[in-house]
C-alpha cells in the first residue's frame, strides 16, 4: 500500500503553541502517525551525537495518510481547511508539501520514534522491537502499529483506555467501532471482558488488528472477532454491554444512531477522538439519541465521554 506524507514546515512566534495547534488540527483528518523535526539548541558537542539533527534549522511536522481512492479529495480538503484556519495568522508562516511513500519505507522510518509508554494506571504500550521491564501491576500491550492508526501515545487513545479501566470487567461484552490497530480490543480482553469484537471499514486496519491480537496471545475465535465492514451491516442483531468508539467527531455523530442500536439496555458507550472545538456538537448528538453523559475524561485539547441511556 502507498502512503502519503504531508510535511508542514513552519516558523512561529511561539513554536510549542503552533506545534500543538497544527497537530491537533491534522488529527481530525485521520492521520496515521506524527513525526516532529526541531532544531537543536546549538551546543557544538551535539554535532557528534546527531549530525543530521544538529544541522537542521527548520521546524517541521510530518503526518501520514493511506493513498486510497479518497485521498485526492482529502488532500484538497486539508489544504483548503488548513489555509482557512492558519493563513491569516500574523504569528505563523508555513508551507505544505505532499510526498508519496512506500509502506515499507514508512514503517522502517517510523520505528525509530516509538518507545514503550505508560498510558493509564495499569497499561503500558510496548512496540515489539523495544524492551521493557514491567512492574507487578502493569499490563503490557505488545503493539506493531503497522499500517493502522493507534499507538496509544495520543490523548484520544489513552483517555479512552482510562475510561475502559473503570467500566470493563469479566461481566461485560465489548465492541470496538473503528478498531484501527486493535489496541482497544486488546485492552478490553486484558481487563477480562468475556467477549470482544472489533470492526473497521479499512481492510488494512482489520489485518493490523488481527496481527496485534496475535502478538498479545489473543486468539480469534467465537468470542474474539475482527470484522471488515460497516457496523449495522455486519453486526445485525448482536447487542453489547459496552461500545467503544475512538474516531473522528464528525464520524462519531454520523455513527451514534447505529452505535445505539447495538447497545444493550443499561449498556454504556465510551466515545473518544473529540477535540474541544467539537465538544458541543457531540453533546448535542448525545442528547438527540436520548443518551446522557455519566463520565468525562480530558487532556490537553481532547475529551472522552462515557454515556448511557437516559
TrEMBL record:
Its EC number(s): 2.1.1.-
Record keywords, A-Z: Cytoplasm, Methyltransferase, Ribonucleoprotein, Ribosomal protein, S-adenosyl-L-methionine, Transferase
Signal peptide: none
GO biological-process terms attached to the record: methylation
Classification via CDD domains: AdoMet_MTases (cd02440)
GO molecular function: protein methyltransferase activity
A GO-annotated cellular component: cytoplasm
Compartments (UniProt record): Cytoplasm
Residues that bind S-adenosyl-L-methionine: 157, 178, 200, 246
Principal subcellular localisation of the protein: cytoplasm
Enzyme class: transferase
InterPro entries tied to this protein: Ribosomal_L11_MeTrfase_PrmA, Ribosomal_PrmA_MeTrfase, SAM-dependent_MTases_sf
Keyword S-adenosyl-L-methionine carried by entry: yes
Keyword Hydrolase applies: no
Taxonomy, superkingdom: Bacteria
Reactions it catalyzes: L-lysyl-[protein] + 3 S-adenosyl-L-methionine = N(6),N(6),N(6)-trimethyl-L-lysyl-[protein] + 3 S-adenosyl-L-homocysteine + 3 H(+)
Function of the protein: Methylates ribosomal protein L11.
Family according to the record: Belongs to the methyltransferase superfamily. PrmA family.
Protein name as catalogued: Ribosomal protein L11 methyltransferase
Organism from which the protein derives: Hypnocyclicus thermotrophus
